[in-house]
Amino acid sequence: MKKILFGIFLILCCLIQQAKAANNDYLNEVNAHKLFGNNNIKVWVQNGTQQGTVYKAFLEWERASGNCIKFRLANSEKTAQIKVYFVNQKINPNTQRSVAVGYTTYSATPVIQIITINPFTGKYFTQRQIFGIAVHEIGHALGIMGHSSNPNDIMYHATIPNSIFASNRDYNTIRKLYCK
Ligand SMILES: [Zn+2]
């Protein structure tokens, strides 16, 4: 009897593990396309006080991908494959139903625009917040075109992200898209 109970216990454990594994990424929930080869994706960031922070945000995705994705600085704005611009514009949150503080558009190459002023306070975003916004937008630029439904993921849809670092689910998603 004990053996049978132990067997049932093992089967249950396996089932729970499998259910957990199924939720370990959100690639199936989003529209995602691999837009680049893995190596030497050329990036350009507009000059400014937030430039270094955005370069660090690119490194966050290198780390998240287990270094299977590698960025490098483009020689010029023209030759860049991902471009990042800063917009010092105030948005009135009362006149907009949803407020975005970053945008990524896909023309020939992804172009990221980061709004540097918090629309709720009218003050400049801190470097930490700019970092979180940049990591989120770079995720879009890499081809994750939708949003995760889990607020702990950097690709969750939020004006100011909960977490500023890629989560395990972000890691698994980007690795599935680029590294397998
Ligand atoms: Zn987004």
Write a concise synopsis of the structure shown.
By secondary structure, this protein is an alpha/beta fold. Helix content is 34%, strand content 14%.
Verbal overview:
The chain is built from four helices and five strands; from the N terminus they run αβαββββαα. The protein has 180 residues and is of the alpha/beta class. The chain has a single domain (34-178), classed as Collagenase (Catalytic Domain), CATH 3.40.390.10. A five-stranded mixed beta sheet has the order 2-1-3-5-4, with helices on one face. Helix 2 packs across helix 3 (127-141). The protein is globular. The site of zinc ion (ZN) has 4 residues, from helix 3.
State the shape: globular
The neighbouring-strand order within the major sheet is: 2-1-3-5-4
Q: What do we call the CATH homologous superfamily?
A: Collagenase (Catalytic Domain)
Bound small-molecule species: zinc ion
Q: Please, how many domains? A: 1
Q: In CATH terms, what is the fold-level topology?
A: Collagenase (Catalytic Domain)
Q: What composes the largest sheet?
A: 5 strands, mixed
How far is the first residue's CA from the last residue's CA? Answer: 44 Å
Percent range for helical residues?
A: 25-40%
The CATH class assignment is: Alpha Beta
SSE run: HEHEEEEHH
Strand content: 5-15%
- Helix run count: 4
Can you name the CATH architecture? Answer: 3-Layer(aba) Sandwich
Structural class, by secondary structure, is alpha/beta
